[in-house]
Design goal:
about 675 residues, alpha/beta, GIY-YIG endonuclease, Rossmann fold, globular
């Protein structure tokens, strides 16, 4: 008779413990770490993940597992180590971290998914063209030799590849992937918004072939995700290209991780577990003894700071390929550009003239504005009423094509008004500028131009981003207008003019990273110009031309921006000089959210007697009401994340979450709004 066996099981619930279950004799030969099981939990049956097997337990009475779901383990030892670390660092349960690592088709205990015909994740990408072997520059060769040494030695290493726009970072990635493949290793390549960067996918598929490349991103159907996951799991794939969730790809012999545009805030997960891709990728590489390349023309301050402390290796690509010059940047002070009608002017006279010149020369133009919609707020000039979302304290945005007012946070919408709904004594005014208004103005000024728009409103159809990309590539579009997605991964040699409609949109956000985001976006979008034989020109319109973020972007001077911004970060003990932990309490009853935040802050203070903490709040969040919930926040800053997490776990054991109050803890938030 076999001895009794027990398993420790993690569950997808906000509980910090794993749970001991006994294994019935008929299932003992089938249990393995990494498999899913059906378990009785309280008064229901749920999915659990086996994380340990033992011959004994300290629990007096255990319940039996009901059923083993998987024939082979769904989770590898590597993935269990990674998710355990995520739970400790990002303040969530192990089960919640594991659930994030499980591919969509396997959620809720599923073992398969119904497939539709011709399910192919890369079906929109045409395997056309021939891979061109580029002769590497001296700087590219130097970068690649340093990275390849790490790959050949099969040792863990992290490289920050700082290359100005069009310096050829992708060719360095290709060379490193080639080296990894020669060592029979696999690679993951991250792009910030894969569904919006078809050009990157096309280049990788042309270079390495469809059979070697898998694609993982949120726009795939369940069937597509299932097939890609199966190909990766079965070892058919050598390269995975994807957004954040590709970090959980079940590769068995990982050798290289590339994070392109590593500075992007889209690499931060906003839901539990709230992990940052860059930090998590470095941890997975350490577990796998793999090499990491963090690539960017505007690296995050955290990454540059780490390189200057020699925690990671810095590599510079200071020149554009083929000796091309960086585009000339000109700033237009919009304070002096108002029309006699006193209305805000969308396009300055200079930008308008440059657009006309480019159109005459059959050249293409990119116009950037990080605001979608037509008018960004609707108000009454008589009584001062501003039309706001009833669920969020945010102004409604007017969308011309749908003739409605929309909340960009909760998607609440109403039909547009003519008269003020409050005083009924005046016509409402539509103010502010979004991408739709820019498009409308361009149609008026240049009626013969072919105009395209790339923002989330224009990309609702699954393949629409590929269609717009192809139209711009084949010059069916003369002027492409869009939001921040235009700054990512676009390489069109015929683009000679980039216009930034308003550089102040990101600069005026109530966020400590506002200057960094502004500098990064301006530098990145400016880098779309002058990638061909014709020199590029960039026009930046702004009401704050003297701000150092804008001045440094004009000069393409990352180092100057870094030095100036780090002065403020150090003075205020902001990242990267300290870690930040954000705690947000929300409730549909404002008094409960406020009282809960005050009570929690009091308990945290009581628990922190062993060491001094830097705590701000509790206070009303910058966006005080969101999706019907009133929000209060607490910010803690400290150099040791684990110390603060231990403190918070003790505090949460003493402080019981009030009824009708929800709590979210975010370690290293990308924004605090």
């Amino acid at each position: 008779m076999s001895s009794k066996k027990y398993v420790q099981v993690a569950v997808n619930l906000p509980l910090n413990d794993v749970f001991d279950y006994s294994v019935p004799e008929n299932l003992q030969d089938s249990i393995e770490i990494g498999k899913r099981v059906w378990i009785p939990f309280r008064n229901r049956t749920i999915v659990g993940f086996i994380v340990n097997i033992s011959d004994h337990t300290t629990i007096p009475r255990t319940r039996d597992i009901k059923e083993i779901i998987d024939q082979v383990p769904l989770l590898s030892e590597e993935m269990l180590l990674l998710t355990r670390w995520m739970a400790d660092y990002y303040f969530c349960s192990w089960g919640e971290a594991i659930e994030a690592a499980v591919a969509g088709p396997f959620k809720k205990g599923k073992t398969s998914v119904r497939l539709r015909e011709s399910t192919d994740a890369s079906s929109e990408i045409k395997e056309t063209g021939v891979a061109i072997e580029h002769v590497l520059t001296t700087h590219q060769n130097s970068a690649l030799s340093q990275i390849n040494k790490c790959l050949m030695d099969e040792t863990f290493g992290v490289f920050l590849l700082h290359g100005i726009t069009a310096s050829g970072k992708t060719e360095v990635y290709f060379g490193a992937i080639d080296q990894a493949l020669k060592k029979n290793k696999e690679a993951i390549v991250f792009v910030p918004e894969i569904a919006l960067t078809p050009q990157t996918l096309e280049r990788f598929i042309i270079r390495f072939g469809k059979k070697k490349v898998a694609i993982i991103h949120s726009r795939l159907s369940k069937g597509e995700k299932f097939l890609e996951w199966q190909r990766i799991k079965q070892g058919e794939v050598k390269i995975v290209i994807g957004a954040r969730s590709a970090i959980f790809s079940p590769l068995k012999n990982l050798g290289l991780i590339v994070v392109d545009e590593e500075h992007e805030n889209t690499y931060k997960q906003e839901d539990i577990p709230r992990y940052h891709l860059v930090h998590t990728a470095i941890k997975r590489a350490k577990i796998s003894k793999a090499t990491v390349i963090l690539g960017s023309a505007t690296p995050s301050l955290e990454s540059t700071y780490a390189s200057r402390k020699n925690d990671i290796k810095f590599i510079d690509l200071p020149e554009r390929i083929k000796g091309r010059d960086l585009p000339v940047v000109q700033v237009i002070d919009m304070r002096g550009q108002r029309k006699r009608t006193k209305h805000l002017q969308v396009l300055s006279k200079l930008l308008e003239d440059y657009i006309a010149k480019c159109l005459k020369n059959k050249e293409q133009i990119i116009l950037f504005l990080n605001r979608r919609g037509f008018s960004t707020y609707v108000h009454c000039s008589k009584c001062g009423y501003i039309m706001q979302c009833p669920h969020c304290n945010i102004a409604l945005v007017y969308h011309y094509d749908e003739k409605r007012l929309l909340c960009h946070h909760c998607s609440y919408h109403i039909k547009s008004h003519e008269l003020c709904p409050q005083c009924n004594g005046n016509y409402v005014r539509y103010s502010g500028t979004g991408t739709q208004k820019v498009e409308s103005e361009l149609h008026r000024l240049f009626p013969n131009a072919k105009i395209g728009r790339m923002d989330s409103d224009a990309l609702k159809k699954k393949a629409s981003h590929f269609e717009i990309f192809d139209d711009f590539k084949t010059r069916k579009i003369d002027i492409l207008i869009g939001t921040q997605m235009l700054a990512k991964g676009l390489d069109f040699p015929n683009v000679t003019l980039v216009g930034v409609i308003s550089a102040d949109v990101t600069l005026n956000l109530p966020d400590f990273r506002a200057s960094e985001r502004t500098f990064s976006l301006l530098t990145q979008v400016a880098g779309r110009a002058g990638r061909g034989e014709t020199a590029g020109k960039v026009i930046i319109q702004t009401y704050t031309p003297d701000h150092y973020a804008i001045q440094c972007a004009i000069k393409h001077d990352y180092n100057d921006f870094y030095e100036q911004e780090m002065v403020f970060r150090k003075q205020l003990e902001l990242p990267p000089y300290a870690h930040m932990i954000s705690i947000v309490l929300r409730s549909k009853e404002e008094e409960k959210a406020m009282a809960g935040a005050q009570a929690l802050a009091k308990v945290i203070n009581q628990e922190s007697k062993a060491f001094k903490i830097n705590m701000l709040g509790p206070s009303v969040m910058p966006v005080a009401k969101l999706r019907g919930f009133y929000r209060y926040g607490i910010i803690i800053k400290d150099k040791d994340v684990y110390r603060i997490n231990d403190l918070l776990r003790k505090a949460f054991k003493k402080w019981k979450t009030p009824s009708k109050v929800k709590v979210a803890v975010d370690v290293d938030p990308s924004m605090v709004v």
